Amino acid sequence: MRNRSNLPVDPLSDLLDVLQARCKLSGQLIAGGDWAHRFSNLDSIKFNAATEGACWYFIDGMTGPALFESGDVLITNGTRSLILASTPTLITSATATPIAQDDEGRYRLGQAGGFAMLSGLVQVDTDWQALILNGLPPFIHIGRTMQAASPIASSLLQLIEEMKPGNRPGRSVVIAGLAQVLFVQTLRAYLAHAPQGDEGWLKGFGDHRLAVALSSIHGEPARNWNLDELAKAAGMSRTSFAVRFRDMMGVPPLTYLTRWRMHLARREIRAGVSVLEAAAKVGYASESAFRNAFRRVTEMTPGQYRQIVQRAVVELSEPRDVDPT
Known about the structure:
By secondary structure, the chain is an alpha+beta fold. It is 42% helix and 18% strand. The protein folds into 2 domains: 11-193, Jelly Rolls (Sandwich), CATH 2.60.120; 207-312, Arc Repressor Mutant, subunit A (Orthogonal Bundle), CATH 1.10.10. The longest helix is centred in the middle third of the chain and has 23 residues, at 171-193.
């Protein structure tokens, strides 16, 4: 079902692989003087890395504005708008007016400079968008002084260097790779310190006991796991494991197993395998049992999903009219 290696299964890497999550650097912002801006485009994951100076940020649900300094990284999950401002008092007057670009393609706010940041998008296929958005809290702020932040600082310095004007060979590939590394390192730092009360189930990947059980599920998704086996893998009693898993992940362990299997099954169907083959690959000997589970998770049958995928392929292959003007 997936490429195997001698390395132990890592649930976060496995998740990002299934999601085919790819980071794309979208631009550089330079701001100075008195300024404020509301970044209201939603439904996508964004990361912002401050590279110079400091500003204030606010997201709905916060008790008040927080400082965003050079070396910090901020990830938002696209469910709430982000406001950046030179001072907290300007946050309430922030608007979403389009930002002007200078001759070098950088976005500018206010006068001169003083604050700079790099911004990027995390691109995920629409099939997996809801999965990753539900996994992340509304925002993740990793400060430069946090213990787990030192690898982020190193990647950020490399990224800043690559963003300087010039025609270095392979520049675009290096920038894309560094943006991907920066995103994953930020998630790592978050998982090392994620508050249990945070929204989103991704925090469970940072729990060392649950991570063992999650690695077991991800390593052998077709295995007929039961609650006792997973609790034993985590080194916990059945009851303690079930309660902790639900508290951290939002669903019972076996529900997570079923949902993960269905995500993998969708990937198999998209790759062109038959419904029966997809069912077998994720541990279902009965096509009817697989169909029922698939419908519970996706609200459609495997056959209906296959038809949607096939229609999308046909639409992409159809020639499009070209405007001669």
